[in-house]
Amino acid sequence: MNQSTNTQSLISLLKKTHNAEWEATPSSRDAIRWLDDLVQFLFPSNHLPKSSAYEGILKKNQIDLENILLSYLEPSGIDITGVVADFYNSLEGIYQNLRLDASKINEYDPAATSVNEVIVSYPGFYAITVYRLANHLSRLGIPVLPRILSEFAHGKTGVDIHPNAQIDVPFMIDHGTGIVIGATTIIGKNVSIYQGVTLGALQVAKDLAEIKRHPTVEDNVIIYARTTILGGDTVIGKNSVIGGSVFLTKSVEPNSQVFNTHQLRILNRQEAS
Amino acid sequence: MNQSTNTQSLISLLKKTHNAEWEATPSSRDAIRWLDDLVQFLFPSNHLPKSSAYEGILKKNQIDLENILLSYLEPSGIDITGVVADFYNSLEGIYQNLRLDASKINEYDPAATSVNEVIVSYPGFYAITVYRLANHLSRLGIPVLPRILSEFAHGKTGVDIHPNAQIDVPFMIDHGTGIVIGATTIIGKNVSIYQGVTLGALQVAKDLAEIKRHPTVEDNVIIYARTTILGGDTVIGKNSVIGGSVFLTKSVEPNSQVFNTHQLRILNRQEAS
Amino acid sequence: MNQSTNTQSLISLLKKTHNAEWEATPSSRDAIRWLDDLVQFLFPSNHLPKSSAYEGILKKNQIDLENILLSYLEPSGIDITGVVADFYNSLEGIYQNLRLDASKINEYDPAATSVNEVIVSYPGFYAITVYRLANHLSRLGIPVLPRILSEFAHGKTGVDIHPNAQIDVPFMIDHGTGIVIGATTIIGKNVSIYQGVTLGALQVAKDLAEIKRHPTVEDNVIIYARTTILGGDTVIGKNSVIGGSVFLTKSVEPNSQVFNTHQLRILNRQEAS
Amino acid sequence: MNQSTNTQSLISLLKKTHNAEWEATPSSRDAIRWLDDLVQFLFPSNHLPKSSAYEGILKKNQIDLENILLSYLEPSGIDITGVVADFYNSLEGIYQNLRLDASKINEYDPAATSVNEVIVSYPGFYAITVYRLANHLSRLGIPVLPRILSEFAHGKTGVDIHPNAQIDVPFMIDHGTGIVIGATTIIGKNVSIYQGVTLGALQVAKDLAEIKRHPTVEDNVIIYARTTILGGDTVIGKNSVIGGSVFLTKSVEPNSQVFNTHQLRILNRQEAS
Amino acid sequence: MNQSTNTQSLISLLKKTHNAEWEATPSSRDAIRWLDDLVQFLFPSNHLPKSSAYEGILKKNQIDLENILLSYLEPSGIDITGVVADFYNSLEGIYQNLRLDASKINEYDPAATSVNEVIVSYPGFYAITVYRLANHLSRLGIPVLPRILSEFAHGKTGVDIHPNAQIDVPFMIDHGTGIVIGATTIIGKNVSIYQGVTLGALQVAKDLAEIKRHPTVEDNVIIYARTTILGGDTVIGKNSVIGGSVFLTKSVEPNSQVFNTHQLRILNRQEAS
Amino acid sequence: MNQSTNTQSLISLLKKTHNAEWEATPSSRDAIRWLDDLVQFLFPSNHLPKSSAYEGILKKNQIDLENILLSYLEPSGIDITGVVADFYNSLEGIYQNLRLDASKINEYDPAATSVNEVIVSYPGFYAITVYRLANHLSRLGIPVLPRILSEFAHGKTGVDIHPNAQIDVPFMIDHGTGIVIGATTIIGKNVSIYQGVTLGALQVAKDLAEIKRHPTVEDNVIIYARTTILGGDTVIGKNSVIGGSVFLTKSVEPNSQVFNTHQLRILNRQEAS
């Protein structure tokens, strides 16, 4: 079997697959450019537009979103114009929520020196920003695009928040890397989460798609690093503190404090070897 | 001691080091461009080429790989033409395996809505894609380049799969961040792995380079989030399910189910303070 | 309420906020470009400059740093010229330390095949590189910029080292993803850290900003994957080995070996269901 | 006098000038990007958009124009929304005129092999395209931008058509370089012009700004290469042919044929030296 | 008539036209990138490739040309593989001719200080380079692409040489702007041409496409600035010198010297007004 | 003879030539980037820098020039540091001259509506800008770079001013395309030149390199379009007006007015055919 035979066969296969699947997804490059423009508009980190340019930048961003949606949703019957109008109508609210998030991070994190530092440098804040934008699109019934946005933020920050999760305001993530927040998670006001926390499902199976599989976290809860909380019926009662490296699959009462009681064996290395 | 003295001394040092080391590595920028082009060719997420352009794009990709290999391996005695031909001859097989991987993810993950969504947005799928390409290069005896590719995917997704690992088809990664799969790991068919799983070595020492140091995972195994499995003699028997946050350094029988039995201490916060 | 009312209100809000906050931060794009140029200068992975160009490249990099600092620190009273001169005077020392780091990684990691491979492909080495540069800026009293640099490296590698941490030479990170090293951590010579390790605070509260909240790790310590060590008074004595998935909030003596003693429950899946 | 004194003085001067003049001009980079997008939309030479994308591309182009105009005309009292609407309402007519221009070039030029070749490769056609767009903006009362567009086309093609000139349809330019068509020129239907032709003013003085200073060329006229026709009262009657290298400052009747009668002296080089 | 009616009508028109015409032309962007790469390969003005990279760069350039040709000529029956092979087989000859051209320019132009300066800075030399490449493609029967290349050079330099012209070696152009050399021109060895020279047709009409319409210039002729020579039967005999601003439509004998005998009227400005 | 033989032979030839010639020229890409930065600094057409950034931008531009000069002049013995200091010390004077040039264009051209329009859109003004910068470098003894700059401007505007020409202030170019001003030309104050004007040499021969070969134009002269003035002894006396399409090889007295007296033959086309 020679090379060109193989190559031809691959090419035939690709063409068949590409044509069949192509229409159902937006360009990921366009999606990410739109996101970048919008985030820079809300939280400019490179240069400030002229005062008179704000309105035009926003209008252009709106057209870009409309074009992205049209590129793969035109035959879907979704009211794209309505979705876009609703999204931009809601943008002020999202922005105000994000400022509350940033303020809370600055207020709690001893390593933060200003809200500005949080906004320009914290990956956790970037992840929340993309989540709030993707979540709103998701709630408006848009498929695929919210996942492209959230997985882009996931790649950039290590924080994987499914756009369908419900997260109230303010919300704080510190250090971020390795956080997973599943699609049916519900998180109350004023919750703080540290690196490596998973809010996940007890079991993973396709026929659970319509069921609440991820935990509920009530107001004013803190969850320290590397803790795993699983299950759709698991509720972390308000004002609780969950320590680091805890593995929880059951609900805890409000005002609880949960500790890991790992036993360690400590030897002198002479003994150990 | 003034500045220019220091600067001159740094520059002398750099020149000496650079000249000595330079010839042994490919341009990482060229390597990543080649990878991007190839992944876009297999799974186009931005635009579909004209039907007549497929063959030319593939040919160009082939020349790019050949040029990258020539740039640092010419004096090595490796048969570069042969390696390149073999790689592209194998590409159809790799592509078919990747489609099986994507289908499996879609089949198991309740959050996935289509194979397409998996392909365009799942970091886990991207990591598997880069692994299968880098692994083939590695098996053809190519040094350095496979690591550049796999570490690029690692940076982008948080999934660190050494190109020398052996992973059968289909293979599923969900959420991805924090997964480590060591160089001598062997993974069977139809295995699923969640975020934060390590398949690692018990000890790390240079003189172990030639020894199997990482586990074997047999067919149909599921390993939930944050579990650590260590050791070259550790075998996870087929059809087993390893729960989340487990720490395993010994083999388990086929058909086992392994649970973490962490004890937690739960106090009312009044008591706790 | 129609769309343009909402939009106008958002725009007014943005203008007010942006003008108030704008002056206090550098352009993140300029900051990252400067970092990229400097890292490529020290460890060229794409092409080697002409021998006669080294001095000019360095001078240009110096002007770029000076311009970045001027853009947000001019009214601060910081002696920017002095800071820049000191930074470039110290660069040779930083470079020599980084070569020691790279050599150690190559020496210990059985998967590494050369120092060059480490330099061009290891995310852990990249994270250390950015840390050593950001740390020096931080020690010179520069705000914000060091965080932008370290969080950029965090996003790229999953390794979050606060620029204020003190880390001696050589230092080794392997696999990297999910490592967190807090602002007041002190790490001695010849320490090795694996993926998922946290060196963190026991509690997080803003009024602790001036207090040592993160551990001290003495010389020749190895900390394996997913281990969490918390607290400003926690000291890991020299020559100790801390096993994987350990959760430590107390000091250990020099020469200790610490094991995780998790109990697992292992069932046959027939029984389990 | 040392260097920094000079530099400081230059910088003060620049700041004063820039601030005074800045508000009155659009970004030339934005202007040219807008033009490129629009020309690519009308005459795509790189790739064809999806059928469903046409409308969105046009809408985006419209926002871009609006933003450019707002950036320097907001305080002018010009009805920018109205101007933009009128421009895009007229675009179909402009496009149809341009196709007539291209067809005529293909019909007359023996070197052209298809209308397509004319559209993708003829600088003369590009110059006419930019003229028809800039002229429409100019007629809508827009200052500065039309000149930026026409001078950009001038730089690219060597054809300098003032946007205020009136040129009927179809119009043919061949070879193009060195053509100058002044601001008050009037050109009828079906006129052809070759390289190096000037339709200029007899005298140049600022107080002539409001007066017709450039010629009128009636329908069906051909003007061959390097001919100069000057003066606001000069009328080239319909159906005339003006030969190459003619210098004309007076009107000619309809149906005229005008020749250059240069005398040449021809010597044998033996005699000449 | 409202705006969207107009816009819809334009869009329908564009779609109809684009679909009909699209297949017959290459991407001009790809064409120009290919040209830039090839010219940089022959006359590098930015950096020198590694010695081992030359062959790969050339191979890649070859694939790029093949892909461009395939994109619009696949159904044409042209032997694209053969054309590409022939082109690259002839490249050494073209390169040697271009070096002779550059040497001649340096030898004759008192303003040139080295062959290198000619190669990196002379637009005339750039125009000859593109002509020799485009001409070879044209001789191999390739349509459209040679015109895209030559009109790109025309835009960049003001020198318009039709790719079908026949120009022997060496050939010298100085100052360049405004030169037009028609499709059926024949130019001998060692000819020099200055700015504004036209070698054109006496009449322009489509049915002349198959006839020689442009002059023949024999060996060792010099044609000074702004001279126009017209007609397919016009032959400038060898060793002749044609002065500046001459208008010639008839042949001249070998060894002739032709002068312009313009009479000027010179007045004192007092008298003149 | 097969293809690879030919290719190998070309590659050998290129390597030999490139290595021999390479060291003597700067990167044209770097040169043009430096020029663009400097022109944008003097005449910003895209965005205004922060007030505090001016000094840094200028310093960076200075380093860029120094690096370009070092890249090809290091072994030349030229005092590069001195040249760079002198150039930037003179920049304020050059800038003031350029503002006088722009004011004059605005004052004389009835088509200009403001100095700003001239600065952002007139190719003639761009050509003068590049000339004044290149000329200063040339006077400081810098080879090659000034030609790269002036030929870049030539390509962009069709105006070819040799950097060694001496042109006083103010100087006005309108329409520009096709202007040639030779290396030994001397132009006085307040001179205006229109499209297609050549100030050239009577004869072109290498051994004239050291001799004044191009005309002298005294103060307050106007030279209209397409006029050619040749010869190193030709002096256009002050206050003269030279009409369009004149061909002059002798001096004219101050206060002269020179007309073209071309005779035309005008026929009715009936007669003519």
TrEMBL record, chains A, B, C, D, E, F:
Keywords: Acyltransferase, Amino-acid biosynthesis, Transferase. It comes from the Bacteria. GO terms for biological process: amino acid biosynthetic process. GO terms for molecular function: acyltransferase activity. CDD domains: LbH_SAT. This is Serine acetyltransferase. It comes from Dyadobacter psychrotolerans. The lineage of its organism: Bacteria, Pseudomonadati, Bacteroidota, Cytophagia, Cytophagales.
